[in-house]
Amino acid sequence: MTNVGLVAVSHSAPLAAAARDLALDMGRDATIVAAGGVDGGFGTSAELISAAIEEADAGAGVVVLVDLGSAVMSTEMALEFIDPDLAERTTVVPAPLVEGLVVAAVAAGAGASREDVAREAMGALAAKQSDIPYDLDDAAGAGGTAAGNAAGADPGPDTREWISRTYTVDDPAGLHARPAGALVAAVAPFDAEVRVSYAGTGRGPVVARSMTSLISLGVVGGGEILVQATGPEAEAALDAVGQLAERGWLADGEVKPETTIPAHKRQTGSGLEIAVGPALVWHADPRPEVCKEPKNQAEAYAEAREAVRTYLSSLGDDPILTLQIGLLDDPVYTGRITSAIAAGKPTQIAIQRATTDTVADYLELPTEYLRERSEDIKALGDLLIQALQGRPLGGLAAAIADFGRDPVVVLDSLTPALASEIDPGSVIGILAATGSSTGHGALIASAKGIPVIAGKEIARDVKQGQEIALEPRSGMVYVDPTRAQLHELLRASKEQARLAKTAREHAHEPALYDGRQIYVRANVAVASDAELGANNGADGSGLVRTEVLFADWKHLPTVEEQAEVFTQIAEALGKDQPITIRTWDVGADKPVPFFDAPAEDNPFLGVRGIRLMRRFPDALIDQFRAVIRVAQCANIKVMIPMVTNLSEVAWARKMFNAAVEAEGRPDELPEFGMMLETPAALLNVAAFDEVVDFFSVGTNDLIQYVAAADRGNSSLSRVADEVIPLVVDLIADTVRKLASPLGICGDLASSEEHVPQLVRAGVASLSVRPALVPQIKAAIRAIE
Q: Could you tell me which residues are beta bridge partners of residue 411?
């Protein structure tokens, strides 16, 4: 069943958005689109209203509420722009915007017809009229009957027999829209007239079949209501109200909400949704001028550093923020600052120079991934200068709240700190002038399900309030999109939302192709990925990235510490689900502090993965021990990365056997597998098939090695993309040679475009980003 959509039209964009949010807090299942303002100022736009009507419609029609006179004219023009069939099922009502939208949202969310939703909206003024009786004639100096109390001719005494019962409204918010709607629904089936009075104030009686009238009683939490009924089924109607009261004033089958956050703000997506909204332009760059210097430079720096530490620590325990906090104690970075201060440089100059020099060091690193980490240094320097100048740190969250409507945040650089400030339900998307999708700030925002596009110079030209449209899948940005562009984006957005909703509804069902189940598993890089994967229906995990899990640790984790983390992941995903743990994949673009690997001219072709572990055999044995320990109570597998030849597998097996002996030769041993990431491994896969239990293709590395193109170098992305068909062919050839199951755990597994080719090729499982599990399952089911 589809519900009636609602559109709030106002001359003020913040007013329309605020009315929408208030209404959604009452009618959480409603679809409401705000269409307010024009060109960042006051006014109404027929184009914006027509787009809003199209967005709000799900097939059951739309009810439009307006504020002032010209809003009516703009809405009438908008009806001429849209499809005639949609215009036919759109009703514009002269109801009060705020009150009408609230009751209409409840009615629409309950599945009422368009006519009933419009009728409820029109009756919304009753609550206010009963609260504030007002005599129009007296106000004009002519005397007469109050408009709110005009009742027509005296109907005479009521001689009917009424049955009465008293109930306590124990909803904390009283008899508000949700319980009032439930009361209306409870008495609707019965042949009886039911009325309600508020015992606490004597207000009433009002008819129980009108939600707006019930709300007008003003019943507070814990208040008593007198419910009276007359007619053939009066007793049954009162029994239904009694059952409603016993359920806590929840409709039959309704679950008590766990949060007061409106439904449209509780749901986070994959971060790939189309985002359209007004721009909130955020300027976070520090002032270039040097502030008045304090007397004690070293003390001023120490205070600024502690202020930044406190601010970053307040934003949570995200590993990226932990790493940035660690930079505050980095001997190279901080040493440059303190040395300059000791040499007589002003503190701000010392920070600026140290930041510039350290950024320059990072920009000389061998891979794009590592070079992008310079953004974190620059962001930290900016924060230190802000603190030194006595300016408040952060503030983006407050700016979003003050904006008054859900914006597309536009800024120069999306730092980890700023990304951590953002509530996923408070913004539509983020556009940054610098950086990339692999920047730390973008990773934090994307993990929250916020669409992000970074590295777009056009962001510097955006003005406050301009309409912005983001299409993350293609990286397209539209500033002040045309009606045609907006129409197409909204159409695509609705289609994406429809497909995503369907995918979520079937997320926990198996994904079948040609009669066989294709397992869709979740890649786990942080512990929360496991819970997200489980919520999205993941069939376990096909890749636990241990080097990322422990990247912010200062010491090599012990057997016990690793086992504890692995157990948490297994418990989150389900101990009966397969969990594949990859051993330390350290080196190249993934350094960790407790493995000291020397710098290399070409680290992607250097000592990394299982090659590096030959230098740290005890660390690998300890990790194997942790995996074996958890395998006694969960379905755990283990695999080794960056394999090129059989001798590497033989050595790793030797370390594994040493771990088995150290653990007392337990009965339950994890399956032993390997990554297929190098062309040499694929060419010799038949030989590997005799010594391992399973394979997983790491397509990220495999593509870069086949294309001879560094995967971190954005200028070579086209070269890498062009070899993907060849890589798929290689995977298909590999499947035909194997007796063991083959899975995919690289980014290619998360690509809806390439999933059909991989599945037809015969892969057994796909391990993907946790948020994409439902979509990938749906893509598998759709293969013809």
A: 282, 432
